[in-house]
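Continuing from the previous page...

OK, I double-checked the sequence for O-methyltransferase C-terminal domain-containing protein against my notes and this is the correct one:
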Amino acid sequence: MPDSQIVQLAKSVLESSTKIETYLQENDLPPLSFELNGTGRFGTIPVPADIEATRYKALEAGTELVELLRGPSGFFNLAMAYNGASLQAIARWDIPSKVPVDGDISYASLSKQCGGIPELALRSILRHAMAHHHLFVEPRPEFVAHSPYSLMLVQEPLLADSFWLTSDLGFSTHPHLVEALTKWRDLEPNHAAPSHQAGKEKPRYDLIQEDPAVATRFSRAMKAFSIFPRGPFTVVQNENSVFSSILKYPWDTLGDGLVIDVGGSTGHLSIQIAKNFPNPNRRFIIQDLQNSMAGFEKTVPEDLTDRIQFVPYSFLDPQPCEGDVYMFNNVLHNWPEHYCVRILRNQVAALRPGVRLIITDGLALPRGEREGLLAQRAIRSSDLLMLTVFNAGERSEADFSRILAQADPRFRIKNVQHVWDPTVNMFPQGIIEVIFDA
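Thanks. Re-ran it with the corrected sequence; updated structure tokens here:
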């Protein structure tokens, strides 16, 4: 009699976990653990790519096993709707920074450091986070200490910024999706959930720019998403291992020239390209709104200042700079389709025959190729996030073909490279190489 699905999944988890544990033991590496003496700093266990793939296989089978055992009725749990509330509180009150790295703190003292939040509320919030998210531990009655998960938010400030973005800013926005769609019934960027939340018909980025501190932290959070691994392991590929899909493109085949990084924020991806594909004759222009310039000046290394410069520019206006390559990294999924057409059309005035556009964005696998559960969830979660925040979304290859044709019939897709590496991507992505045929 063949094994049932739950037994098959359990065997898969055991097989993969055993392979991982064997590798860690044979290489004197720390085991995965919820204890502080386990993995050490976040994402620092070096493993080859096949071990990371094995981890992902175990994670996928384990997720399916848990949900199969929970069953349909177990999904409809009233308390699940509130699981993000504890994360929002931890991010809003910056609790990780208030808990000693070595030692613990009483709820009473923590209450004072959080501006008088009632102790009873703190207990409920933190004990929920301990049970559901492995954030913090209670080593003795009425005292709180760090777990590996909460400690990483102290050790890695950029991760704390990304945690704030998803758990505080994001959690407070999501309930407004349905309200915004019900009220406006369109996909204009100034009618998305943040607009409804703020009571202002302004798009998300305009609302963010109203508060310089929020804008600065938002930029840091975006950087964190592009440079950190997605789990406890760091995949050892070579000395130039990277965590951005855009670096999967063969930049070394392009030779010299000028790369225009459109909507490039503070320039962290162009800096990675310059470092990983060294070419003294390749220059970069980072284009974004003026308020990103200060972050750029802090980010660009001194040895690259002669090759990388910042030019204030909004891609909702005609492109003023002539270049050889125009890079759009996770830009278009932030905009409704008719705005994507406008953004791409705005580049045309600066283009000459043979110029390339390199578009990196969320992209589902081609129809007919099986997407695993976690890949499906990743792309669908990102799609819903883009809808919530921008009235936009992730797109298919056919969607991009249509958008490019509407922007200008001279745009020709030369190649589409699908990228789904959980160590690099938050969701399945595509690198779309476009040639301008004048």
